[in-house]
Amino acid sequence: xxxKFAHPELRTPENLVYKRTDFLVDRPLSxxxxxxxxxxxxxxxxxxxxKGIGSITIGISPVGCSVLAYDxxxxxxxxxxxxxxxxxxxxxxxxxxxxxxFTYQGDGDLAAIGTAETIHACNRGENFxxxxxxxxxxxxxxxxxxxxxxxxxxxxxxxYGRDVGIMGHPMKxxxxxxxxxxxxxxxxxxxxxxxxxxxxxxxxxxxxxxxxLGKGIGFVEVVSNCNSGWKMTPVQANQWMEEHxxxxxxxxxxxxxxxxxx
Amino acid sequence: xxxKFAHPELRTPENLVYKRTDFLVDRPLSxxxxxxxxxxxxxxxxxxxxKGIGSITIGISPVGCSVLAYDxxxxxxxxxxxxxxxxxxxxxxxxxxxxxxFTYQGDGDLAAIGTAETIHACNRGENFxxxxxxxxxxxxxxxxxxxxxxxxxxxxxxxYGRDVGIMGHPMKxxxxxxxxxxxxxxxxxxxxxxxxxxxxxxxxxxxxxxxxLGKGIGFVEVVSNCNSGWKMTPVQANQWMEEHxxxxxxxxxxxxxxxxxx
Amino acid sequence: xAKIKGDIVVNIERCKGCEVCIASCPFxxxxxxxxxxxxxxxxxxxxxxxxxxxxxxxLVCPDGVITVYRxxxxx
Amino acid sequence: xAKIKGDIVVNIERCKGCEVCIASCPFxxxxxxxxxxxxxxxxxxxxxxxxxxxxxxxLVCPDGVITVYRxxxxx
Amino acid sequence: xxxLRLMKGNEAIAEAAIRVGCDGxxxxxxxxxxxxxxxxxxxxxxxxxxxxxxxxESEVAAINMLYGGAGTGxxxxxxxxxxxxxxxxxxxxxLAGTQLPALIVNIVxxxxxxxxxxxxxxxxxxxxxxxxxxxxxTIVYAPASVQEMADFVxxxxxxxxxxxxxxxxxxxxxxxxxxxxxxxxxxxxxxxEEEVISQCPWASTGxxxxxxxxxxxxxxxxxxGQERLNxxxxxxxxxxxxxxxxxxKIDCDDAEYVFVxxxxxxxxxxxxxxxxxxxxxxxxxxxxxTLFPFPKKPLQELGKKVKGMLVVEMNAGxxxxxxxxxxxxxxxxxxxxxxxxxxxxxxxxxxMLKEKIIGG
Amino acid sequence: xxxLRLMKGNEAIAEAAIRVGCDGxxxxxxxxxxxxxxxxxxxxxxxxxxxxxxxxESEVAAINMLYGGAGTGxxxxxxxxxxxxxxxxxxxxxLAGTQLPALIVNIVxxxxxxxxxxxxxxxxxxxxxxxxxxxxxTIVYAPASVQEMADFVxxxxxxxxxxxxxxxxxxxxxxxxxxxxxxxxxxxxxxxEEEVISQCPWASTGxxxxxxxxxxxxxxxxxxGQERLNxxxxxxxxxxxxxxxxxxKIDCDDAEYVFVxxxxxxxxxxxxxxxxxxxxxxxxxxxxxTLFPFPKKPLQELGKKVKGMLVVEMNAGxxxxxxxxxxxxxxxxxxxxxxxxxxxxxxxxxxMLKEKIIGG
Amino acid sequence: xxxxxxxxxxxxxxVLSMGKILAYSGVMxxxxxxxxxxxxxxxxxxxxxxxxxxxxxxxxSPILNKFDTAIILNQQSLDKxxxxxxxxxxxxxxxxxxxxxxxxxDINIYSIAxxxxxxxxxxSKVFNMMVLGGFLKLKPIVKMENIRKGLEKxxxxxxxxxxxxNEKALTIGQDLIQPVHVL
Amino acid sequence: xxxxxxxxxxxxxxVLSMGKILAYSGVMxxxxxxxxxxxxxxxxxxxxxxxxxxxxxxxxSPILNKFDTAIILNQQSLDKxxxxxxxxxxxxxxxxxxxxxxxxxDINIYSIAxxxxxxxxxxSKVFNMMVLGGFLKLKPIVKMENIRKGLEKxxxxxxxxxxxxNEKALTIGQDLIQPVHVL
Lengths: 262, 262, 75, 75, 360, 360, 183, 183
Ligand SMILES: Cc1ncc(C[n+]2csc(CCOP(=O)(O)OP(=O)(O)O)c2C)c(N)n1
Ligand SMILES: Cc1ncc(C[n+]2csc(CCOP(=O)(O)OP(=O)(O)O)c2C)c(N)n1
Ligand code: SF4
Ligand code: SF4
Ligand code: SF4
Ligand code: SF4
Hints:
The complex is a heterooctamer, with 2 copies of chain A, 2 copies of chain C, 2 copies of chain E and 2 copies of chain G.
Chain A: E1 16-18, H1 37-51, E2 57-61, H2 69-72, E3 76-79, H3 85-95, E4 100-106, H4 107-113, H5 115-124, E5 129-134, E6 137-138, E7 144-145, H6 164-167, H7 173-178, E8 183-190, H8 194-213, E9 217-223, H9 227-230, H10 234-248, E10 252-256, E11 259-260
Parallel strand pairs in A: 2-3, 2-4, 4-5, 5-9, 8-9
Antiparallel strand pairs in A: 6-7, 8-10, 10-11
Chain E: E1 3-8, H1 9-19, E2 24-27, H2 35-43, H3 45-48, E3 52-55, H4 59-71, E4 76-80, H5 82-87, H6 89-98, E5 102-108, H7 124-130, E6 139-141, H8 146-163, E7 166-172, H9 173-177, E8 179-184, H10 193-199, E9 215-216, H11 223-243, E10 247-250, E11 257-260, H12 263-278, E12 283-288, E13 290-292, H13 296-305, E14 308-313, H14 319-327, E15 333-337, H15 346-358
Parallel strand pairs in E: 2-3, 2-4, 4-5, 5-7, 6-7, 11-12, 11-14, 14-15
Antiparallel strand pairs in E: 1-8, 6-13, 10-12
Helix pairs in contact in E: 1-2, 1-8, 4-6, 12-15, 13-14
Chain G: E1 2-10, H1 15-28, E2 32-37, E3 47-55, E4 67-72, H2 75-81, E5 85-93, E6 108-111, H3 114-121, H4 127-138, H5 144-154, H6 163-176, E7 178-181
Parallel strand pairs in G: 1-4, 4-5, 5-6
Antiparallel strand pairs in G: 1-3, 2-3, 6-7
């Protein structure tokens, strides 16, 4: 292929400013084109790389589209049963206090079936990091309603739109766990623009740094698209996300250094 | 027995001002002497009587000391599995929308194993009443730590006092569920003094009246003693409760007519 | 002169002697018996004639064993 | 005169043609190819020479397929 | 009159539920059965028959919603797949202990653990021996076609209410996902409240002044009382074993060898029977339709007439124990299984019959 | 050197766990086994050996804490009683599927449902046939004394790590609550991190640059891969059946009739053996100690020598299936069971032996 | 009569719905049918296939390893199913997406350039119906009138206006199909 | 030697700990023992009982329906266990709390007024040790020195100061026990 605007002469190690971290396994991600999971994976691994903690990090993937996260994140991993990642992480961090431990969970996993495990790990003030991908839907199983599905939003189990009178309200679990004394840093971010990605990386760093302090859970929600589930193109999906998800799930820090800031 | 100050002449139907409601089954309660469960049972049944809904009320007892509530409350009852009462109530109220449905649950039941069922029933805005007895301990199983056990408080699974660093913080689940849009009336009461009992009765009435409005859960927490588990006399226990439980679990309405008031 | 006069009836066999009623009475009308019932509990008894039938004791009684009467009587 | 010059390398076989990178480029450097890769996806290509190596595209790329270089070059 | 449709097994279950007058469905998504709830949500029976359809927060919640609904005499069901059904075991034990009617559908996938989403029959033991605690059984129907997926909904509810017991439909991902012709009977209207109350005089429906209050529970702290309840349950299971056995025999009359298989495996074996007969080998198929009650006696009879049996299951050997317990050790009874989501082919099971049973 | 103590079965388990160098206990209170956690909390091993003891928010959380701990090579355990164990079935299936070592103690109470808190053996099927989904087994030890409650903790952990499999101790409320003399061996120090890493080279302990990252999972979306995993599991179970069978024979050498019983029932039958021998009747007792692997061969051998067997269980007839599958139908094999928390007496089982087996 | 067919291709090629229409048509003429898809997340962007059986008798196994006919729409599927055609059976493929020709000599092989033709005619949406048309030309196991009925049944009412287009595609397909190797 | 004992009374009477001390004493002299309590919430304010077996041999069933000795502290327990004493066995009861006398004629019956005596002497806490003392006078199955050791083992260290009081109670009990009906 002819590369018209290519500048091979620039492609030297000194000039390298950005490349996919080696803490991602060198294989194609299993996610749909444009899905936010990939960006969060990469930022998380960049933080692990920056902190130099790759050999003392243990990650937990959920049941959801990111069930295969363990195939991509080049650290030791465990795959939890649906919803139970915080239980695994609780035990692991207590048994290996000098390891960095994180869970990576979807909204069905963390806020539906795993509600009790999430709330109690946060309430106990466990010393690990929770990364929570809120895409408002169950991606992996083919687009069913999630606790975070917006009112009126169509999914395969609310094909006429979520009717809050029957199906309940979208749940802001992040605001909820921020109320608990056991959380130390709670934030909501996104990864659809370069600026958002940079902020998410900072947030992830801060959340993992919490483990150095031992003062409780660091919790990073990432509002993300599930373009497959939403039945949009990735670009449309990101726009829809800005217009519809962000008003309900506003970005920004919610709790910093153990204090509510919002 | 000689009744020195008895006035049998006063004991006529016209003069009757207070008697145990017939909506309590005529048998001894199984609770320890001085336990608050009995008072709450009675107030609840008085409300049922006052509202005239005895024949269209379905109650759900939990697993906990009040597992036998179904033996005492003279309405149709079901005994739930530990923690799952809100799931039962959800189905029952939806299947029998013209019935009044309540759950009656302890702190282990509602705030530990049943966390997910509690939160999601509240989040869906189900149209039933939750009565939550917070005695800071697992009474039935012999006094183990509950999610609501106070810091430093001794139980059989924290014999040296609850160490929040290891065992987590006492959980204020009532404040938590008050955050959810699906709750309509949320309050915290007690039953250790006549005034408190009267307020609790009003609160129960209000919570059950919510079912006439169909705007979501009515939730009444009653802070109560478990003198057996606390290893005190009932009178001591009530005093200890005022001094130690109330500061952490302050009495009063938290959400009224769908609006947070505290 | 008309006066409010009250009386309570304690279901002795059902009383568990928890003593919660005692403090609730504004007139210190209740105390515990010397004897025990068949379950081995001391039970609530009236120890003065000042009861007004306010029902406080009955309200706080966990076992709902107190019935209360009240009447205007002429003294 | 010294100028910042950038270049990107797209791992064509890994690109899924999601087009998320396009909008992130301040200089409209990226567009989609006419051809498809072996998975059947159109892939990202450079369509002008204005890249400054800002890395925006690489940051937002879900599949991490973009490598970025930058240098001061004399024009 | 009814209606003929081409449907997936999962859809047939959902449609049959609506038509049988089911009062409530409570479930949680999981492949390969999410179409059950999706179909219901799309059909909106809550606007037509008044049937409640609710996506629960988990399988644990779903089974306990069933418990609540069943305890009030309503016709309630759930569906899930293997890991979700494991989470329901406490609830199923409660339903059995409290003697409540309910229908639970397991569209089995490969296990253990998260496993695969491909079809499997490895939950036989869980379904038949009782995956929950205590001495109980659920009636278990094993459909082998989309038509049976639909039919067994009615069969299941009838048995559930007749015996006051939870009933399981044990199917698998392939039958759930495949489409076949299915004849759907005319809808039966949902029972009115009055009908529920009169047909379920034991239920907690609200206590009129004319009767004692009803209590739905499985607790009896007094062991003597608990033993009485257990004896009652055992007696019920005995009656069920006597009266509810269902099975199918294909080409068994002159058979020298038989396959024993249920559900999807039975259909594969049926094809293998054809293959064998084409080669002049007298092979038959015995298909248990109820797994509990297991068709002990008919199988025992058959055991006296044939020279050997090959039990074919999409698992490592589970139903074979019940086959041996029925037939004994007089003739060779062997197992052939594939697992983890792999479906054996007719060729393959025929070859295995020759290798393991016929010899040579 | 060790130490002699008088302890409850539940306490013995807890103390044995500390002494065997257990890394973590995760549990939720339930009668009749809450003493396990209570003892640990009172002993504070987290201050001595560094063992973690945590009261989980539920049994579901507890078993998944086990999964996490086990996946990192740590020696972890939980205990519960019947309803709680039912809630753990998904997690147990995951442990088996991921091949993780862990110890699970079930102090069985009467079921089904909430049942009673009195002792029972009605969770045999759940324990032995797999209460969770998929083709898996757990090794199951059935202690009959407080000494064995302590001893089987070590046995259990050893087997769990050797085979990378969850191990169950199936006991009951009576053995959990009763006190007996127990000899406790000297404590073994907990393994250091380095030891854990070198002894569990498969575990997810943190990836050094020198090796590939480790993944603990039971998922394989590819059915062929999933089948391979299953074949591996089945091969493991075959080895376990070959090597790990434990049983006890009492007075069987000259016996004409035998009781077959496990756990508490076996002790009751042992007394009944005495009663029988006093009357000159040659009775013996066969006690399976491992329920999986079931002592098939020794029981089959015994079946050739005796005239009949009475299987005594505190349930409605569960182990009897494995007894028949081992022995066959040549001699009468009958069941005697009590349920719902009732414990049969030695007199009673002896009478039943006479009635049901000896005749007359 | 029993016809056992595998239809295989990419996820987006309408493989499943082609099978569905065929099956529904069978139902319309009172035959037994089964339609057994591959399923699961591996379908996402990957391959999809469906086994369709149309028969006068009760259908035993819905899962087969040998077929009377294989309809193949991409290379992966050709690799997987060429050898699964019964000797004397039929293999139909669309050369678009095929890089290696089928090699069997003991079966009938036809090609149908439906993808290209459909693109040309702006009928890409009903490309699968062209292929079906080609197949039915060779094996008229269902009558055209029943296909119409099948379409009516399997398409939601709001899509019934597309039926003429579908029928057109069927006809085109019948003309398009070409023998490659005939026994 | 095998001695099978049931001790039964109200929850608060120290029934379980009496059994425990006896069992521990057995351990101290190298015998086999088992201690099997009734348990559960029914204990709350209700009755409690414990089966203690002390033996030279391995103990088979820890659960019995016939006993060598029954030590009975309330009426309910007398009603329940009088007939469970083996012919020729021993029944000891405290008349406080008993409303109906035992009626068996084929067993040895003793009474011990320990409750009253203990109340009189301000030793109510060790009332159960008096009863134990009485039993051991009749059946010295464990040596006094081993009882002491048993006490040391079964009481937490902070309660060791109470051992002399316990020993005193044992001695008093030995004097207190009275034959009612001896074979
Ligand atoms: C016990 C259990 N229940 C249900 C499932 C099916 N299941 C798999 S993933 C999933 C939900 C995934 O949604 P989410 O957590 O939002 O993650 P996403 O796929 O959107 O990233 C469900 C319900 C399962 N595997 N196990
Ligand atoms: C699944 C399950 N887990 C545990 C138990 C044991 N259990 C019974 S009641 C109870 C806790 C009771 O405490 P709470 O809910 O606070 O009520 P209380 O007794 O204090 O009124 C527990 C853990 C059970 N029955 N079922
Ligand atoms: S289904 Fe949704 S969440 Fe899953 S990979 Fe695709 S876009 Fe991402
Ligand atoms: S144990 Fe506690 S909660 Fe239970 S009845 Fe007694 S005082 Fe009440
Ligand atoms: S009714 Fe009132 S005044 Fe009378 S005894 Fe009770 S509390 Fe006292
Ligand atoms: S964002 Fe990445 S995957 Fe998407 S089109 Fe651009 S380079 Fe390709």
